[in-house]
Amino acid sequence: MSQVYGENFMVDGVERLKKSKPMFTLKRNKGEVTLHSCKKLVENVDFLSELPTYLLVKIVSYLKYEVFMLNDVIFRHNTPGYCMYFILTGSVAVYSPQGQEVTHLKDGAYFGEIALLIPDTYRMASVISVEISELYRLDKRDFQRVIAPHPALVELIHGKAENRLEETIFLMKRDRGR
User: Fold this and answer.
1) Kind and range of the H or E element at 110?
2) 92/131 Cα distance (integer angstroms)
3) Most CB contacts within 10 A, which of 7, 33, 75, 86?
């Protein structure tokens, strides 16, 4: 009896599986999946949080995953800036041109955004990983490719970048006076 029941059950179960529709599909837009996993990172960036969702999806689809070990130099002061970083996990130390530690940045923070927003920018500080850190990198050319067709957004973002640059310069001058 169990053999007959088992065979019928197996046949019926297989037939039902063949006819059923999947509850979800794995075919998802790469940007949509990445946006979901990086949403928190993107929302922390003031000039990105105001962008329409379709632009955020495009930007996030360009993010590149990188891992830095303890004491790895992410970038050095006075080198050309071509990207910004988002910290997924870990922490980094930011050093002034004089070698003084300015701050630590942790999960969810971002840095290097001035390089995306102001042409021909050189790094204002050095950044070093203080533990194993998982970062996402956004390159300047990818960012510009996404926002270039939107002049009003470009203007808004540049205004925010100039404010952040002024704050950075103020903090560095203050630290130099210590």
Assistant:
1) strand 110-111
2) 7
3) 86
